[in-house]
Amino acid sequence: MASARSELEADSWAFAxxxxxxxxxxxxxxxxxxxxxxxxxxLLIATFAAIKHRLLLTAEDIRVLDEACRPWREQIVRxxxxxxxxxxxxxxxxxxxxTEPFRSQVKALELAAERLENQLLTECLPLRAPAQGTVxxxxxxxxxxxVVAHFAKGRGVQLSSAIGTIVEAAxxxxx
Length: 175
Prior knowledge:
The chain is mostly helical. The protein is about 75% helix and about 0% strand. It is built from seven helices and no strands. Helix 1 crosses helix 3. The chain starts with a helix and ends with a helix.
């Protein structure tokens, strides 16, 4: 079972990197992160589960995944992201050519922390029978809207176009 989970983690990480690199997806993910507080790794693991395993996560599944990784996200990933982002504008001596290699190292650490979060998320994915047939764009959109709703918590944000961009890229990837 450990090797199956290890393979699942490797597959989900490869999927996350591939879909994030598709046109418009990074921007859509960052919009959802910045405007609704979405954990992009949960969004990507939900997409992976649906597209590659026909596993449609429920609101309860999303809550469980969030609880499992929240301490890691809040104590490790977000602080690394804040440092990396902060180096774009300062403090002195940043930003300059001398501080850019340091910023790149922090970015690599942030990516490594996200990979560890991905591993944690795959360990927590529910094991149940997959959905019948191919997952439709509407089903994936419903799952991703549940992820956004979990994090938006009444902020009233409308992010359908960002979700649509991710759904379109994921469905293309499934073909």
